[in-house]
Each structure stands twice: as C-alpha cells, then as structure tokens.
Amino acid sequence: MLKMMGRLCFAHKTALAPMVRVGTLPMRLLALDYGADIVYCEELIDIKMAQCERVVNDVLETVDFVAPDERVMFRTCSKEKGRVVFQMGTADPERALVVAKLVENDVAAVDVNMGCPKEYSTKGGMGSALLSDPEKIEAILSTLVNGISKPVTCKIRILPTLEDTVNLVKRIEKTGVAAIAVHGRMKEERPRHPVHCDYIQAVAESVSIPVIANGGSSDIVKTFEDIEKFRAAAGASSVMLARAAMWNPSIFRQQGALSVEEVMEDYIRYAVRYDNNPFNTKYCLCQMLRDRVESPFGKRLHAAQTNEEICEVFGMTDFYNKTKAELEARKAALQTNGDQTETRILFTFTVFMLVSVFPRRDYPPQITPKMYLLEWSRKEKLDQPVYETEQRTQDRAFQSTVIIDNKKYRSALWEKSKKFAEQAAAIVCLRTLGLPEGRIGEEHSGLVNKRKRDDKKCAALDDSDLCRQPFI
Ligand SMILES: Cc1cc2nc3c(=O)[nH]c(=O)nc-3n(C[C@H](O)[C@H](O)[C@H](O)COP(=O)(O)O)c2cc1C
User: Fold this and answer.
1) Residue 349 and residue 407 in contact, taking contact as beta carbons nearer than 8 Å
2) What residues are paired with 452 via a beta bridge?
3) Which of 36, 74, 308, 431 sits in a 20 to 30 Å window from 12, CA-based?
4) Distance, CA 218 to ligand 1 centroid (Å)?
5) Which residues form a coiled coil (predicted)?
6) Spatial contact of 177 and 155, defined as CB atoms under 8 Å apart
7) Mutation to probe ligand 1, out of 14, 16, 19, 42 (largest number of atoms < 8 A from CB)
8) Which top CATH class is 351-467?
9) Ligand 1 center from residue 169 Cα (angstroms)
10) Using one digit for the tens of pLDDT, what is the confidence trace for 192-204?
11) How far apart are CA 469 and CA 118, in angstroms?
C-alpha cells in the first residue's frame, strides 16, 4: 500500500503527448505552467539511453542523462517532478528494464511507445511493429511493471478491426499497466485522416484502467473547451495533445490561449534558463510560427545559431545576459565552495548492462573478468573492487554489484551462482570503462596470463594494455 502512495494517477488528466524533438524540458515546463497535468518526454530509444550516464547538474539544477558523446539525451528538473513521463522506444524487455531502472527515480512513470509508424522505429521491431507481436508487448510491459516501482503505461495506435483492438488492450491491461494512451488512428493512417473516436470509446469501455484519448488535434481540438469535447466523444478518462500543443502550448490554459508571440517568449525564457540545445529551441519555435516560418521574421530566426542569437531576434538580449550572469555566478559560487569546477558534477551512479550468464568457455582456463578488474584497479591505484551479492527468493538466482572508484556496476540479469554473478558484474564494469575482459581472441587481452599475480609483469604494463575499446 505504501508503495502506491504518491504515484502518478492517469485518471481525469490532460497531458502533453510525447513528441520527438518537441517534448524537451522547456516545452514540458511551459505546458505544465499553462495547465497540463502530465507531460511526456520525446521518445528516447533504449539502446541510446542504456549508454547514458546520470549526471547531477548543480549549476542548472537539473538531472541530465548524458550520452558517451556528451549529448544530453534527457534533462529533467524538480519543477516537473511527479508529472513527467519518460517515453521509451524498445523491442526488448531486458533492455527496457535497464533503461527504466536508470531513470526510475527521476521520473513519475515510464511509457512504452507502441504507435510510431516510422521506418526507423518499426525496422528495429519498435513502435507500431509491436502491435503485431502481443507476446512481445506482454513481455516488455510485465518486465517493467514487475521491475520498477513507478507506474508503467503504453501508447498504442488502433488495429484494423475494433475486435482486435479491444482484445489487444485487454491483454495489455493484464500486464498491470497503470493506463493506456490510444491514438485513434491505424498505423497506415496519417494525421489528415479523421480520428476514430468510436475505437477509443470501445477500448475505454472494455478496460478498467484509465484510457487517454489521443489524435484529436486539428479536427476536434482547437481550444481549451474542445479538450473536454474530445474526451467526451472518445468516452475516455483523459486526453493527450500533441500537435495542438506543439503549435501553441497555452491550449492547456483554462482562461484561454495566449498569443503565439507571448508563448514563444515564455518558451525562450525556459530554453535559456535550462541551457536548451539551440537547434532544438529553434525547431520548437519554428513549429509555433507555422506558415510564418517563411516570413522575414521566420528567416531571421532560422539564421540564428545560438540561444543568444535567438534572443536577439526576439528582442530578449537583456533577459539572456541577466540569466547567463546568474548561471555564471552560481557556477562560480559552487567552485569557491570547493565543489567540482565542471558544470557536470559526477556522483556515484549505477551502470546496468545486460550480460547474460558468464560465458566460461569464452575465457582461457583460470582467467576471469574479475582478475582483469583487480589488475586494473591496482594499476590505477584504486581500492580493490568490492562485490555485493543478493539472492532472490523465487528461484534462488544471484545478482552482484561491483563497486569501484565510487561507482557501481551490475548486470541486469540474474545468474545461477554467486561466482558467475560476480563475473557478470565485473564484465559490466570492464565494458563500461572500455577495458579488456580477458576473453579468448580478444584484442589486448594479454593482460593476465596466470592466476597468480605476476607483480613484475604487471609493473611493466603500459597504457596500451588497457587501451579503450568502443563502448558496446
Ligand atoms: C512532431 C511530432 C513528434 C512525435 N513524436 C512522437 C513520439 O516521440 N512518441 C509517440 O508516441 N508519438 C509521437 N508523435 C505522435 C503524437 O504523440 C500523437 O500520437 C499524434 O500526433 C496524434 O495526436 P494529435 O492529434 O494530438 O497530434 C509525434 C507527433 C508529432 C507531431
């Protein structure tokens, strides 16, 4: 019961829909300010997210998930705490769990995209490709529901027949998801096709979890009042808006929408305050300009390359300078307080990775990843790796975490023995750090040849032995 307290509830809500490139932090905060109850982030692909590092950014007061190439894939802050849903693109239950665990404490819920009809999504078995694989849907959703403490939801498109659609959502409901968002179009249908409110209604009548109606922008929802009309027409508990909110997020305002000019200025304030990627800022502003994007003003906006230049176009240079000065002052204060001098302040984090059962036959006799990690820690003059292992009751399987250099590494999979669980954790660590693991045939694997440490040989090691391999 305690676990349920404070969980995001999806009934009787209005939500900002997930939108690639549009649903970044400034847009989400703006939608919340104007009255949205829940905001979805843009779809983020599991493989990319699994490589991210969670970084607390004390200057911006955000939590960032940063890719190995330093790109911020997902940025969130306390203003949206409890209301932001992390949408994931995935076709793999275990990988989905790895990512869900990574973001679990920073988001209110995790959603799986099962509606995207774009080839880049479907060819990997993600998005709407999942709709024809209900077993996979069940595996992904139940793994997430059982694996994380936050609510899990999914967003689907409708199937060609009403019966198939209803059967699918009934199966989905059984996985324990907290809600289901239904885009009332089939995967072949485009936004210009009318939304099938009758399908959404049939779904809403057939399940007891909240159904979130989606697909009403443009033909039904043009004003705040239309949101309720769409909800009623679809017989749903909640409504999710994509395009209508992308064009003017103040559609969520009960008192009526603001002018797009005013909204764009509000957007820019958040974009500067949270150091949003300028190309993303520009993209979102261009969506709001719509057909005025070709006007002289639109062309000036298009030419801007930085948030500072975007502010110039909007006559907001004073705001830009003031905000930047405040951020610089905060950064300087953090530095004088003896904190790290970097904007990115790292802290202990846990890396999860999928390392299946320790493949003993891939290693020479008496050589193990644990030995490789130990050798490396000695060479780097770090404390020896510490292993913590837990055993689960249902199948007595083991999962280990290795702690080294203040960071934790763990395989998301469970092993039959404690010994193998520790080896799996060591492999996760070695792979994350780009170090050799000792596998037969592996390049640069000649680090350890004997079980007993040969100190003389170790002392002779140079950096080439530990050369970084691409992150996998
Ligand atoms: C720019 C844009 C990006 C989108 N990206 C996503 C996405 O990342 N995940 C998703 O589930 N749907 C995505 N969609 C689909 C919307 O969430 C929504 O299902 C669709 O636009 C219908 O809702 P609407 O009529 O309110 O626009 C996107 C739509 C747009 C216009």
Assistant:
1) yes
2) none
3) 74
4) 13
5) 317-344
6) no
7) 19
8) alpha beta
9) 20
10) 999 999 999 999 9
11) 32
Q: Is the CB of 22 under 6 A from ligand 1?
A: yes
> Would you list the DSSP string of 241-300?
ESHHHHH-GGGG-TT-PPPHHHHHHHHHHHHHHTT--HHHHHHHHHHHHGGGGGSHHHHH
Mean pLDDT check: name the lowest of 143-152, 216-225, 279-288, 373-382. 373-382
CATH architecture of 2-257: Alpha-Beta Barrel (3.20)
Residue 53 corresponds to which amino acid?
A: E
Residue range(s) occupied by CATH 3.20.20.70 in the chain: 2-257
Predicted pLDDT of residue 452 = 37
Q: Is 336 exposed, middle or buried (0-12, 13-18, 19+ CB in 10 A)?
A: exposed
Question: Which tokens in the block code for residue 340?
Answer: 């790290």
Q: How far is the CA of 337 from the centre of ligand 1 (A)?
A: 44
User: Per-residue pLDDT for 82 more than 90?
Assistant: yes
Task: Say if ligand 1 is within 6 A of residue 113 CB.
Answer: yes
pLDDT in tens, 314-372: 999 999 999 999 999 999 998 887 654 343 433 334 565 656 556 777 788 778 889 98
pTM score, whole prediction:
0.76
* Pocket test residue of 88, 183, 247, 252 for ligand 1, highest count of atoms within 8 A of CB: 183
* Closest listed residue to residue 74, CA positions, set 108, 120, 23: 23
Q: At what angle do helices 260-273 and 278-289 cross, to 10 degrees?
A: 170
